[in-house]
Design a protein that fits this description.
Radius of gyration: 22 Å
Bound molecules: arginine
Number of strands: 14
Helix content: 40-55%
Distance between the termini: 70 Å
């Protein structure tokens, strides 16, 4: 009797393991993605809420342009919106591990990311700005040899500060957010900070001892990312985004959150 129980227990454990594995697999597959979200009653957005006006914390809750768009996506599907506020440089891995349904984080579309996720239509254009002390002559400012603060894993980090095509940084200091990078500049540990245009403008508004200037780097576009092959969800996201773009709502949201 005891033995049978043991065998049964082992069998149960095996069945459970298979079930869990099967469950994991269906979580990463695109097919049935919408049904799964509806069955869960919620959709999960992955973001890093230290990137105003796109995502920031207001009254202890994430708010911002991307949050409003995400809410409209949840409403369109008829489920609750859940937000995971996390480190920016881990968002794509989390998405691909099935720990969220989509990433909306002022995320720039680029070839490296396109190889591992699928992107929605583009809804914002931006470029990288440099934040420096306000008495700086930006026309002659030389980034060569400077200690540059960036948010880890952003295009400001990977495309400008950490490569030598544009200049040879004295040192690149990576922080969890541009807010932290600016705090470190205030503490004298960083000479300047590279971050996207609108977040840079917002940061200098809050820190009037600094100014933000456009060094003339190429334009970037933001899009929402889903796991590769998740066309069911991407179609809904694109429908919502297209409506926002067509009705001029994105600009309105930028003003609302600026
Ligand atoms: N656009 C830049 C990038 O995609 C920075 C995005 C940072 N976003 C954030 N929510 N912190 O790399």
């Amino acid at each position: 009797m005891k033995k049978i129980c043991k065998v049964a227990a082992v069998l149960m454990a095996l069945l459970l393991a298979v079930g869990v594995l099967a469950g994991c697999q269906s979580e990463t597959a695109g097919e049935g993605a919408l049904d799964r979200i509806k069955a869960n009653g919620k959709i999960t957005m992955l973001t890093n809420a230290q990137f105003a006006p796109f995502e920031y914390i207001k009254d202890n809750e994430p708010a911002g342009v991307d949050v409003d768009i995400a809410q409209a996506i949840a409403d369109e599907i008829g489920v609750e919106l859940e937000i995971t506020d996390m480190d920016f440089d881990a968002i794509i891995d989390f998405l691909n591990a099935g720990k969220g349904d989509f990433a909306a984080a002022g995320l720039t579309v680029n070839e490296e990311r396109k190889a591992v996720v699928d992107f929605s239509i583009e809804y914002v254009t931006s470029t990288q700005y440099v934040i420096v002390p306000k008495d700086t002559d930006t026309a002659s400012y030389d980034l060569n040899g400077k200690v540059i603060g960036v948010q880890a894993g952003t295009t400001g980090d990977l495309y400008y500060a950490s490569v030598e095509d544009y200049f040879k940084a004295g040192d690149v200091k990576r922080y969890k957010s541009a807010v932290d990078a600016v705090a470190e500049m205030k503490a004298g540990r960083v000479d300047c900070v590279i971050i996207d245009e609108l977040p840079a403008k917002k940061l200098v508004e809050e820190n009037p001892e600094y100014i933000a200037y456009d060094p003339g780097y190429p334009p970037e576009s933001y899009a929402i990312a889903v796991q590769k092959g998740n066309t069911e969800l991407l179609d809904v996201i694109n429908k919502v985004l297209q409506k926002f773009v067509d009705e001029g709502k994105i600009d309105e949201l930028v003003v609302k959150h600026s």
